[in-house]
Structure formats: structure tokens, C-alpha cells
Specification:
The chain is of the alpha+beta class. It contains twelve helices and eleven strands. Helix 5 crosses helix 8 and helix 11 crosses helix 12.
Amino acid sequence: METFTDFSTALDLVAAATEEARPLPGFAQDSLLFKDLPAHLYHADRDALSCSLLKPLLVSPAHFQTALTATHSDSDAKDFGTLLHLLLLQPHLAGQEVAVYPEIVHPTTKAYREFVETNALKLVVDEPTFSAARQLADKVRETPYKGRPLGRFIEESMTEVSIYFTEPTTGLRLRVRHDIYHPDLAFDLKSTRHASVNMFSRDAVKFDYDLQAFMYSLGRSLYEGTSDAKPFVFIAAESNEPFSVHTLSASNSFLTNGAKKFQECLSIYNACAATGHWPDLSSDGEIEIEHWQQFTPTRAWLAGHSAV
């Protein structure tokens, strides 16, 4: 849904911003906060490294290089998450960026193909998907947190806020985009197929939400000039009925794990950038069998048969 625009430096973003969207300078040198930077401009920037750009370094440097130029494919889950964010955090943009197909989608029908072509620059969803996202958005707003509905916290916050900052140790230019920037808290909205906290927690580590929580907290602390990071809270919203909603704070152990990933990413990036070498995972070795992988014949099928 996004148009790729190549920016050579972060200053191009400043120049591209409207007068009303000029960035606000922060406490740390060169730190900037954009209140209304359009998502396609933010995601197109390749001068400042984002959490999404850094994550592939945890696989290999070559995966990072590939991700820089990869074409991002859409999926039902990603589209639903984008729709939920718009309805909950930027409802004023939903009419401009979303086109609702009035029936259930049948991709091969002529009517649907024509609808997609007519709305080529919009997120196209069918009526059931739009209805489900709207119900979930309402559920999130009504969910209590610290004695108040989350909707009240959202009303008190800036949403989709972009922060640019320089990491003090490496001097690398980084960027983060907060879903909900509350004066006292940081919220991040995640749509999830899981209803349970346990299953979401597994995904949180698998998909490097710990790296995100640490990096976002660091960027905000540097911008605000504070030594103690604001609490970072995930809003985990189940994407299917009955639409369970969990508010899960990032613990010290979770943030510490994210800090280790963050330091590893920056270390790898600097080393590869200095040498111009971005190796992949190619290797030469042997496959070993762990004790728990050893095959043990059971012939359980004999138990129900008489000996011949």
C-alpha cells in the first residue's frame, strides 16, 4: 500500500515536511520528534536505521542487505493490523486510506478485481474484515488499564509519533515510531492470533518485540533527556472473536534481552560497514543428533496383532 521514496539523508524528511509538521528538537543533540510525519515517508527512509531494518542482522548481515531492497508483500494479518491501527489511532485517515469492498472477497471475480484497480493506492478490505477491526478497536478503547479505559489514554496521547536520534556509543542515526506516546507511558498496539498471554509472550521474543521495546525506550529517553525510561506497555489485541485484549508491560528481563539484541545489531552493522563485507549463513559442517532426537524403534503396531 506504500509508495517507496528514497531519501538520502534524514534532512530530506525535514525539508519534505509541511510547515505544521516541522520536527520538534529534543534534549539530546540532533534528536527530533515528528508529530505528523506520514507513514510512507517514515518507512521509506534508509538513512536512519529502524528496528525493522535492524532485525535481519540477528539472522545474518546478508539478510540485512537483502531486506533493504526487498519488496514488502501484503498478508491478511498485516492488512488487519494496519486497519486496526488506522481505526484506533488515526481514524481521520481511515476514509482516505481504506476502501471497503461491500461483500466477502472472492479474488477471482471481475467485480473485485475492478474494485482493487479503482482503489490501487488504498488498503482494500472486505466488509467482514472491516467490521471485525471496528469491533476490536472499540474493545481496545473500552479495556480498562490502571482504572481507566484505554481510550482515555489514547485521547491524552500523540499517536504515530516518529523520533530520530543518534545512538551515543556508535554514532549511528536511528529512528522509532511510537504508536501511542502518552506523557507517562508508551503503548504499542499489536494484533495477534493468540488469545493467551503465554502464546503472545512466545511470539514477542520470536519476533523481537523485546528489541523494539528497548530501542523505542532508548530513543524516547534520549529525546526527553531522562535517565529512567517510561513504562513500555504492549496492547495485545486478539484478531478473532471474542477479541481478548491484554495490556502487558515490558519487564526488566524483557528489556535487558532486547538491549542485548540491540547491542549485537549495532556491533554487527558497524563491523560490516567498516569492511564492506556482509556475509550470509553459508557454512561447511556436519549435522549432529542430540540425545533426544535419537530414533528408537517401538513397533507399537504389533501390540494389537497376534503373533504369526
